[in-house]
Amino acid sequence: MVKNNYELIENAKKFWEELRRHDLPETKRRKICDDLMKLVTGKIKELSAVHDSARVIQCLVQYGTEEQRNLIFEELKDDICDLCKLKYAKYVVRKLIKYGTKELRGQLFAKFHGQVRKLIKHKEASDIIEYAFNDFATAPQRLAILEEFYGPTFTLFKEHSHQTLDQIMTEQPEKKEMVIRSMREALLPLIDKEILSYSLVHKVFHDFFTYADDKSKREMIDGLKEHVPNLLHTKDGTRVAMHFIWHGSAKDRKIIIKSLKSHVVKICKEEHGHLLLMAIFDSVDDTVLVQKAIIDEMVKSLDQVVQDQHGRKVLLYLLFPRDPHHFHPDIVNILKEGDGNATSKKDKVVRAKELCDYVSPHLIKYLENNALTMMSNSNHVLLVKAIITNASGDVVPAMRAIAELVAQPCSTADGAINMIEHPACHIALKKIIANDKTRMEAGNGILFSAILLEALPKSTIKVWAASNRGCFILVSLLEVGCSTITEKVSNHLQPVTKSLSKMTFKGAELLLEKLKNPNKSREFRV
Asked: Where would you tag: which of 209, 349, 462, 464 has the fewest CB atoms within 10 A of its CB?
């Protein structure tokens, strides 16, 4: 093929060298596209299969006119599926998908009809099917692709309204067994293949696990349990992996958890994948395995986990599982799907406590060593509060680190602001101080307020009384309801009471009122 078209390819490459320049004037680009189109017409299929000339055709698709793209497609349309299987030609199809009009794309996708299951198993073609499904297919086109996994009934007829699997199961329940069998036959050959990372495959697996019987689920888990890391970058793939944990045996769970080795930190930071770790925390009775295989790996790279929004969620789940203050009801409902599974026997409260007890010392130490960083970042406020309020063990070192941080006098020489004026620090302090009420009710004699006052010089308290945010923190201290703390704060503020009465900001007004009526609860909060 190359030998017969050698001269043609060489001439086409000369046009390509010019056409691919980014600084090419538009008028000249149009002229080159026209000349190149005349040169390759009638030979586009052959040229698409060769490395050098395939790039020429790709460039022509990218920079050509709509009419030229349509002509290229007309020449290739009867061989689209075959071209998808070729190492270089598939990129021409990819360019047609990317740069074609909605109408051209629809005609191209129609060529996949009845061939999706074959193409998805092919090393080269699977990439194009995934690209089309994930990046460009409309909702009906996505359904048409998915339906091919549901059985021949849904691929024989082109002219029908496409349905989701939920709709099929609701409106045609008699077809459930046939559909599950068809999906099983389509999915089993995909195990161990690179395409296991494709979102299309994840979607089909998720549909399968939603409706398959327990025996079919266990069979699929047995084949997939060592490949879980390949599933966790998509929502559907993560749901599939969660089903593995929920419906797998204790032995399956152990294999799955061990397959995550060296991937744990990355999984913590996955938008969807981090939910698998929560499902593991919820369900796996062997907490020693979870501690050694997952939490230890997190702890070794704790800074990376803390700095990531999804990583912080994983840490919060260890401290406050399913707490509505930290987790959206939709997430909690997803996790509840695993409740009552046949494998988990241990009481969920005991399981959660064992994990919390294990991770707590590491989190307390991290907060103690990184108080400035965490108290200065609004994204870390909830985690700081969670560590102080719910971590197991001695939290005094972390409390003291925070107290000493905010007690430091501010040097205005470098333009720095007092920590009490920092928005994140201000919010975190209010939350931690407010929790002292709960500590007192629980009979816990260790109060952050007391540690804070112990670290605060009298002069610093007076400085706080001169700022709005500082006044609100002092009001929070008075509202703890501990007579010792109230007395100490009141005594320190006695000399500045007159000054407070002259200040116009809301914090000073509330603080003055609180000093006059210490037992009166305020209704206004910032």
From this structure: 349
